[in-house]
């Protein structure tokens, strides 16, 4: 991690830090608490704080976090907004870029998997009332589909715990990129 990037982040005005963090996770409560926790001694400290915050997020903030993510297998571009979570065009562009990178293992040319993911996403949303969130980095479309099918058997309260864990993983990757200057 570049010390300069961490110093830059720690010294941002509060509003700018919140906006930068909302690029990582669209839950305002998370961004507010992360901003209040500055300065961070290291990226690992920021990631640890993020995990603790996600573990305690309200259902409303979890819903806002989910609104910042496209469905697995779909590629939200910078022009698309989530109807339930208005975000700036800059936030959409960065979030779309991160999502594309994170879901790069889903081969858009594999129409059978893409179709199965779309159907699975809808089944998941009917069952749980929210999108299927999974840390997709380094996983293929087939792996993500298998995870989705496995999670359909979860009880709703257990699935919310899985969602929290996946959000913690995603936020950790994004914070690491942010604090490494790789965003």
Written account of the structure:
The protein has 9 helices and no strands. It is mostly helical. It has one domain (3-180): UraD-like (Orthogonal Bundle), CATH 1.10.3330.
Structure characteristics:
single chain; mainly alpha; UraD-like; 65% helix
Give a short summary of the structure.
By secondary structure, the chain is mainly α. Helices cover 65% and strands 0% of the residues.
Task: From the 3D structure, determine the CATH topology.
Answer: UraD-like
Largest sheet: none
CATH class descriptor name:
Mainly Alpha
Mean of pLDDT = 85
Shape: globular
Oligomer: single chain
Q: Helicity range of the residues?
A: 55-70%
The CATH fourth-level homologous superfamily = Oxo-4-hydroxy-4-carboxy-5-ureidoimidazoline decarboxylase
Per DSSP E runs of 2 or more residues, the count of β-strands stands at 0
Task: Give the topology string: H per helix, E per strand.
Answer: HHHHHHHHH
**Please, how many helices?**
9
User: Strand portion, in percent?
Assistant: under 5%
Radius of gyration: 16 Å
Instruction: Tell me the number of structural domains.
Output: 1
By secondary-structure content and strand pairing, the structural class works out as: mainly alpha
- Rounded to the nearest angstrom, the distance between the terminal CA atoms is 13 Å
Assigned CATH architecture? Orthogonal Bundle
Note the topology.
Layout lengths: L2 H9 L2 H11 L3 H9 L6 H13 L3 H9 L21 H14 L8 H18 L12 H11 L4 H25 L3
């Amino acid at each position: 991690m570049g010390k300069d990037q961490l110093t830059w982040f720690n010294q941002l005005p509060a509003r700018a830090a919140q906006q930068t963090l909302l690029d990582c996770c669209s839950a305002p409560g998370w961004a507010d608490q992360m901003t209040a926790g500055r300065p961070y001694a290291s990226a690992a400290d920021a990631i640890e704080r993020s995990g603790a915050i996600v573990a305690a997020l309200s259902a409303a903030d979890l819903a806002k976090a989910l609104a910042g993510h496209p469905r697995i297998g779909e590629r939200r571009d910078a022009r698309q907004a989530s109807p339930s979570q208005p975000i700036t065009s800059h936030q959409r562009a960065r979030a779309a870029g991160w999502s594309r990178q994170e879901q790069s293992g889903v081969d858009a040319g594999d129409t059978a998997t893409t179709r199965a993911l779309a159907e699975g996403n809808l089944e998941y949303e009917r069952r749980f009332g929210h999108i299927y969130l999974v840390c997709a980095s380094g996983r293929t479309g087939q792996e993500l589909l298998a995870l989705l099918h496995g999670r359909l058997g979860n009880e709703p309260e257990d699935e919310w715990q899985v969602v929290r864990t996946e959000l913690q993983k995603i936020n950790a990757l994004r914070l690491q990129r942010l604090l490494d200057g790789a965003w």
